[in-house]
UniProtKB/TrEMBL annotation, chain A:
GO terms for cellular component: plasma membrane. It is found in: Cell inner membrane; Cell membrane. This is sn-glycerol-3-phosphate transport system permease protein UgpE. The gene is ugpE. SUPFAM superfamilies: MetI-like. Coiled coil: none annotated. NCBIfam families: PRK10973.1. Its main location: membrane. It comes from the Bacteria.
From TrEMBL, chain B:
The keyword Cytoplasm does not apply. This is sn-glycerol-3-phosphate transport system permease protein UgpA. One of its GO terms (cellular component) is plasma membrane. InterPro entries: MetI-like, MetI-like_sf, UgpAE/MalFG_permease.
TrEMBL record, chain C:
Keywords: Signal, Transport. This is sn-glycerol-3-phosphate-binding periplasmic protein UgpB. The keyword Nucleus does not apply. Belongs to the bacterial solute-binding protein 1 family. It is found in: Periplasm. One of its GO terms (cellular component) is periplasmic space. It holds the Pfam family SBP_bac_8. Residues 1-28 form the signal peptide. Part of the ABC transporter complex UgpBAEC involved in sn-glycerol-3-phosphate (G3P) import. Binds G3P. The keyword Iron does not apply. The complex is composed of two ATP-binding proteins (UgpC), two transmembrane proteins (UgpA and UgpE) and a solute-binding protein (UgpB). It comes from the Bacteria.
Length: 281, 294, 441
């Protein structure tokens, strides 16, 4: 910050810590639960300090999850990673291209396409889930990665974000590029893309997690346990009614299933800074 | 909404748009068309008998007093969720942008909750707040507060609003932060040299420059509150007690997915789509005028 | 920057390539798809059953597929049927029974599957209370009872002692139960009783157990548009009492499904009617609890009659090759063997589907070692089911339960009295049933 204001900084830290206490509390709670025994978790109120079963539960999670539907945890994680990456990358590519077309070009039908895309911002998932399922069956895409990802790549939110960002880019920049003789492709590659890193990084985080945490769609279109994702595996272990649930293991795996998305968050933080530096050039 | 300086090109823009438009047609327009068609029919769940009934499904839905009730519930719920999630996230993002020390740790911890799968989040809320077993619920009741969202509609509403906003704060935080990072520090420095304090700098420089992001998040949060929250409501209150937390989309979900009443459910979705498309058009046509682009 | 560029392009291409080459291993055996909703320990049980069956022969391979919660599984099955790719077997929960019965041409009755495949099938080998719930009006067994439970009364012995009640004598009737609850509350304890599943226990089973009609047309068995009868004087009296006890906390409402169980497990509430399937949690929590019959009203003629099962059954979709049904039949025969049934019963807390498994378990001395485990079976087979106790068949059972839950919640919150609540429930349910039935005409 510009001037040194110790009180202001202190206040900022204070607000952030309060915010984290509230926002991240459920995760802390899950972690605590993952260090207790199942009866301790089920007998309310559950304690709020970690118990002594950390090694036991996490060891059990690594050993025990191998038996979920006869599919190894490695396979589940691989599937989930492929789904999350395909959705994140596919959506970013498609969206940045269409936003580029809408903001930087003038062509007949521009407004038609604009509304065509943005009206779908509003289409609820559950309205389209059964008809979409029918489409996937007709295309023979049950139990394929394409079927798992393609319908989820279709969404206008990312396009909208890029459009919002592109609108803030000063006209002078395009003028300058054109005077330098840059065509639309070079302008996109050399100027627009580097400027977009911050937004791409933020979107990548969000979309990766979005893909990672999908439940209903993978459930509907996979009939082969080998195509399951980690979230389905996790849900298979949880039963509120009648059956025994090993809550301690469920909690441990819940925490483990969060590690890859968190890794993505941490990795992408470098890009936030990078985008900032680039745009100040 | 259009720029002054554009590239003159006849073919390229269509090529750029092609993938998105193709996917949109197959996975949005076709299913949406199916939903509209379905709303004019009455089917049994397995699709043996399909009868054209005109607008009968709509008449049925609109004459249902519960539908009007859930309209009210939806307005209260959506406004509360959007305002709560946006204000809290903006506050945290501005603070996180300010601090120097511990910045990355704060960011990570604030984004982390987004990684909780919705399918799992419902379970966590039960463990925390359900009056029967929730840890926090037991603590609340030990202080003498009569916490019983199973029968008290207002408390149930507070609980689902809290759960839904909680889920969205990380998302908003991330994009506000990205927006803040993109604001050239030189602008703020210049204002500081002119003697503007932090509050004034925020309202005169940062907030206007952040408005494209804010507009994006306003639209996304409206959609989120309207559509993406049925899972939370389903897990936390099931629309109860006595319909106190039954929003429009929860009703669509419940009537279609649980009660297998496809016609009524489709009619409700079509009405819902009409409402939200109107909202989007209003937001793009009027709210966007106040957005400050370059 | 160029590097990042290239990375994105390369990974996108790699992913695309991967999506195009999903391997499908060659299969010599005929696969039997079995979609189910069993999670937790029961998911393991399902996997093991399939494995065991597959090891007994080489012709068929049963493939269990978890399809989420009960409603999610049913929706997946319906969607797949509409897309002409249904599984062979689907597990459908109790309240979905009416929907499946309404779709007779989508399904193949289990009785036919077994007979056509030349398997030994005699309906009388199965527990009458269970099998009648899953049979058509003409007595044809439509689905295979997989996991059935029945509501019983659980009580906390320590709480009983503290209140000066006999910990070995659980209350038998509802008036006794309410008296006991009041005594427990008066002894300074926080809550006398709670309940799980208010509609299943206090409406559906309440009617069957007290031999009262739940709805016209044999509770919907013989008509698509039954009218509910759940606002009889006894129904009203029961709910009025609950509402009065709720006011001072003697009774504490605990939610629409099984959430209230933790009120019992924590020792907060001393008594709780709940599914027999829930016994595992009480045992695991290591609490000193006892079990008794589901209470009834002595003044009801014929009470106690029989309870009706909750849980789920296995349905077979129509339209598969005849050879596949042979495999399905073999699998059901495998599931019906006394060895498998007794094991399932003893491990899971669900009821045995066959008489032989019940007898074998009894002979083994299991019930002496595990008191309480025989109660739900006795409740189910003490008497031949009457037209009030064969079960409830409504095409929109989940919706009707929602309506009833809403009215009950408004009642317990003091917004209306029991008569208003039940009259409203009947009126609204009847209208909803009429609407839903239109889709089937």
């Amino acid at each position: 910050m510009i001037e040194k204001r110790p009180i202001g900084a202190l206040l900022a830290h204070f607000i952030l810590i309060i915010g984290i206490l509230i926002v991240a509390f459920p995760i802390y709670y899950t972690f605590v639960a993952s260090t207790l025994t199942s009866p301790e978790i089920m007998a309310p109120p559950m304690p709020l300090l970690p118990g002594g079963h950390f090694l036991e539960n996490y060891g059990g999670a690594f050993g025990g999850i191998g038996t979920i539907g006869g599919v190894g945890v490695g396979r589940l994680l691989l599937n989930t990673t492929i789904v999350a990456l395909t959705i994140a990358i596919g959506k970013i590519i498609i969206s940045i291209l269409s936003a580029y077309a809408i903001v930087f070009f003038s062509f007949p039908g521009r407004m038609l396409f604009f509304w065509m895309i943005f009206i779908t911002l509003m289409l609820p998932v559950e309205v389209r889930i059964l008809p979409t399922y029918q489409v996937i069956v007709d295309l023979g895409l049950i139990d394929t990665y394409t079927g798992l990802t393609l319908p989820l790549i279709a969404s206008a939110t990312a396009t909208f974000l890029f459009r919002q960002f592109f609108m803030t880019i000063p006209d002078e920049l395009i003028e300058a590029a054109r005077i330098d003789g840059a065509g639309p492709v070079r302008f996109f590659k050399d100027i627009l893309l580097p400027l977009s890193y911050t937004n791409i990084a933020a979107l990548f985080v969000i979309l990766f997690i979005y893909g990672w945490t999908q439940y209903l769609w993978p459930l509907l279109i996979t009939n082969d346990n080998n195509m399951n994702t980690i979230i389905i595996g996790l849900r298979k272990m949880i039963s509120f009614v009648d059956a025994d649930t090993q809550w301690n293991l469920v909690m441990a795996i819940t925490i483990l299933a969060m590690v890859p998305p968190i890794a993505v968050v941490v990795l992408m933080q470098r890009w936030f800074v990078k985008g900032l530096v680039d745009s100040e050039k | 909404m259009s720029r002054r300086v554009v590239f003159p090109n006849r073919v390229l823009p269509y090529l750029l748009l092609a993938p998105q438009v193709a996917i949109t047609l197959v996975f949005f327009f076709w299913p949406a068309f199916q939903a509209v068609r379905q709303s004019l029919y009455r089917d049994d769940p397995f699709g043996f008998s399909s009868r054209f009934v005109g607008l009968a499904n709509f008449e049925l839905v609109l004459s249902d007093p519960n539908y009007i009730n859930s309209l009210k519930v939806t307005v209260i719920f959506s406004l509360s969720v959007a305002v709560l999630a946006l204000v809290a996230a903006l506050l945290l993002a501005v603070m996180a942008d300010r601090v120097v020390r511990g910045k990355r740790i704060y960011q990570t911890l604030l984004i982390w909750p987004y990684a909780v799968a919705p399918a799992i989040a419902g379970m966590l809320w039960l463990f925390l707040f359900s009056p029967a077993m929730g840890t926090l619920a037991v603590m609340l009741r030990d202080t003498g507060y009569d916490w019983n969202p199973l029968l008290n509609g207002d408390q149930a509403m507070a609980m689902v609003v809290g759960a839904a906003a909680w889920k969205q704060i990380s998302y908003n935080f991330l994009f506000f932060l990205a927006g803040l990072q993109a604001i050239p520090k030189s602008l703020i420095e210049a204002a500081a040299i002119d003697g503007a304090g932090p509050a004034k700098r925020f309202w005169t420089i940062v907030f206007p420059l952040l408005s494209p992001t804010s507009f994006f998040l306003l639209v996304v949060n409206t959609v989120y509150a309207f559509f993406d929250t049925f899972g939370i409501i389903h897990a936390v209150t099931g629309g109860g007690p006595a319909r106190a937390t039954e929003t429009l989309v929860y009703k669509v979900y419940n009537d279609g997915f649980v009660n297998l009443n496809l016609g009524a459910s489709s009619a409700q979705s079509v009405i819902l789509m009409a409402i939200v498309i109107t909202l989007t058009v209003i937001q793009f046509k009027y709210v966007e005028r106040r957005v400050h682009y370059a | 920057m160029q590097r990042i560029h290239a990375t994105i392009a390369v990974s996108a291409f790699a992913l695309l390539a991967m999506t195009l080459t999903t391997a499908t291993p060659a299969r010599a055996q005929t696969e039997i798809q079995w979609w189910h909703a069993m999670s937790g320990a029961n998911n393991e049980t399902v996997e093991n059953l399939a494995k065991e069956f597959n090891a007994t022969q080489t012709e068929f391979k049963v493939v269990p597929v978890y399809k989420g919660t009960y409603p999610e599984t049913l929706n997946a099955g319906i969607a797949a049927f509409r897309a002409r790719q249904p599984p062979h077997i689907i597990q459908v929960f109790d309240v979905g029974t009416g929907v499946m019965m309404g779709a007779r041409s989508a399904i193949k009755p289990v009785a036919d599957v077994l007979k056509e495949a030349g398997q030994n099938f005699d309906k009388s080998n199965y527990l009458s209370g269970i099998v009648s719930y899953y049979s058509a009006a003409d007595g044809t067994m439509l689905s295979f009872p997989f996991n059935s439970s029945s509501p019983i009364l659980y009580y906390n012995k320590a709480s009983f002692r503290k209140a000066g009640l006999d910990p070995e004598a659980p209350p038998k009737t509802w008036p006794e139960t309410f008296e006991a609850a009041k005594k427990i509350k008066a002894s300074g304890q926080s809550c006398g009783m709670t309940t799980t599943w208010p509609t299943w226990i206090h409406l559906e089973n309440f009617s069957a157990w007290n031999n009262l009609p739940y709805a016209t047309g044999e509770n919907g068995l013989t008509t698509l548009t039954p009218e509910l009868k759940i606002n009889s004087p006894l129904n009203i009296r029961h709910f009025q009492t609950l509402a009065e006890l709720q006011k001072d906390g003697t009774f504490q409402y605990g939610g629409r499904t099984s959430e209230a169980k933790s009120k019992f497990l924590s020792g907060e509430c001393a008594m709780m009617p709940e599914s027999s399937g829930g016994i595992g949690d009480m045992v695991k929590a290591g609490m000193d609890f006892g079990t008794g019959n589901l209470p009834y009203y002595p003044e009801a003629t014929g009470a106690p009659q029989n309870t009706i099962p909750g849980g789920a059954s296995l349905w077979v979709f129509a339209g598969k090759p005849a050879a596949d049904y042979k495999g399905v039949a073999q699998f059901f025969t495998f599931l019906s063997t006394t060895e498998v049934q007794s094991r399932l019963h003893q491990v899971s807390g669900y009821l045995p589907a066959t008489m032989a498994a019940y007898e074998a378990t009894k002979k083994s001395g299991f019930y002496e070692k595990n008191p309480g485990r025989e109660i739900p079976i006795q409740q189910m087979m003490g008497k031949a089911p009457t037209e009030n106790s064969k079960g409830v068949r409504l095409v929109n059972m989940p919706q009707v339960r929602d309506i009833q839950n809403e009215e009950i919640e408004a009642l317990l919150n003091g917004k209306q009295d029991a008569k208003t609540a039940l009259d409203n429930a009947v009126r609204r349910s009847n209208a909803a049933i009429l609407e839903a039935a239109k889709a089937y005409q």
